[in-house]
Amino acid sequence: MVGSMALAGVGVGIELTGCQKAAILFMALGAEEAAKITQRLSNEEVELISAEIARIERVEPALAESVLREWFESAVANDALASGGADYARDILERAFGPQKAQGVLKRVLTQVADTAGLVRLRRADPQQLANMFRHEHPQTIALILAHLTPAQTANVIKEFDTELSADVALRIARMEKVSPEMLLLIERSLGTDAELDFNQGMSHAGGPAAVAAVLNLMQGALEKSILAKISENDSELSTRIKNLMFVFEDLIRLDDQATQRILKDIETKSLALALKGSSGELRDRIMGQMSQRAVAALKEEIEMLGPVRMKEVEAAQALIVSQARALEESGEIVLNAGASDVVVE
After folding, report:
1. Does 50 lie in the same domain as 136?
2. Tens-place pLDDT, residues 82-103
3. Where are the alpha helices (DSSP H) in 235-256?
4. What was the pLDDT predicted at 282?
5. Which pLDDT belongs to residue 339?
6. Is 337 helix (H, G, I), strand (E, B) or coil?
7. Looking at the structure, do residues 240 and 254 belong to the same domain, yes or no?
8. Angle at alpha carbon of residue 153, lines to 147 and 155, rounded to 5°
9. Of these four, 101, 212, 244, 273, which has the most CB atoms within 10 Å of its CB?
10. Which domain covers residue 112, as residue numbers?
């Protein structure tokens, strides 16, 4: 990790995160100027940057100069974009840095705008408020917007709808491929300027079966099954594709020993016991087979102590474990849903 390397000094050639660049920028600008910038940041952002500053003992002058140059170029581009749009910004940048440099700077800034500026308020909004805002919109409009939110927030919004609308929206997201900026602009205007829907130029990639699978993985069993059943009524092939992309609690049985052990490492005995209350005997045996005798004894005791539990609690515990498994996959520590097409190189 860069953070650990930073303790011995940060030099040229190290790939930095945005937070680390901000830390170096603050150090280069000095306390007084950095304080002015922090006034425009959230408490969380200030804490993250401060933590990076604490890890860095020294910065090579060449790297500090590189970070300052990138910041200056981005500042010029952002000001130009705010004043007159992409064409105006390109003209300003070409005059300041030349055509070749201008193209690279503008591309970088537009990517940052697409990644961070768009949907800021919607992504931070309460799911219930979003559901109330969208409830009377056309399902296609809802699908277009939710496809651009995170799977977690999309799942929380869909939970607020009735099953019929939830399934309709999920089906439309699954069938989605590319969305034109003109369509997104129309949606932005229909919802009002407060929504702050801001997207990059060109066709926007969103939705698809994988997006719906990611959302359904975050839902509890009953709602997930109802939505899949409704989708299957309209498009059985699409429903099958979504199921094949999903990873559910019972799929733990298909993982290799190393992946199973890694998942179990972060799970509390009580949560695992609750999740296993609603699992098959085969899965129980598989999981216990990856545990020490002492851990198995503690798990069995915990299961017995639980007694009868509500299915809702079991599904919540299973969803938590699935969520942890997916997080481990995203970090590259394990592989879920490994198919026959996976190539293994010795």
Report:
1. no
2. 666 667 777 888 888 888 887 8
3. 236-245
4. 93
5. 43
6. coil
7. no
8. 80
9. 212
10. 2-116
Quote the CA–CA distance of 231 and 22 in Å, as a whole number: 45
Please state the separation of Cα 32 from the chain's center in Å: 35
| Residue 200 DSSP symbol | -
Q: Is 217 exposed, middle or buried (0-12, 13-18, 19+ CB in 10 A)?
A: buried
One domain, residues 234 and 144? yes
Say if CB 200 and CB 110 are below 8 A apart: yes
- Number of structural domains, the chain? 3
Predicted confidence (pLDDT) per residue in 196-250, tens digit: 444 444 444 568 888 898 888 887 667 888 898 889 999 988 888 888 788 878 8
**344 lies in a domain?**
no
Phi, psi of 179 (to 5 degrees): -120, 130
Note whether 108 and 187 are within 8 A (CB). no
Tell me which H or E stretch contains 122.
Answer: helix 120-124
Contact status, residue 139 vs residue 173, Cβ threshold 8 Å: no
Of 179, 212, 244, which one is at a domain's C-terminal end? 244
| Positions of the chain with pLDDT lower than 50, given as ranges | 1-13, 114-118, 193-204, 339-346
Residue ending a domain, choose from 224, 244, 264: 244
| Same domain? 126 vs 240 | yes
Instruction: Select from 325, 252, 334, 240 the least CA-distant residue to 288.
Output: 252
Both 102 and 7 in one domain: the answer is yes
CA distances from 57 to 5, 6, 162 (A): 10, 7, 55
Q: How many CB atoms lie within 10 A of CB 202?
A: 11
CB neighbour burial string for 49-65, b if at least 16 within 10 angstroms, e if fewer = beebbebbeebeeebbe
Residue 345 lies in a domain: no
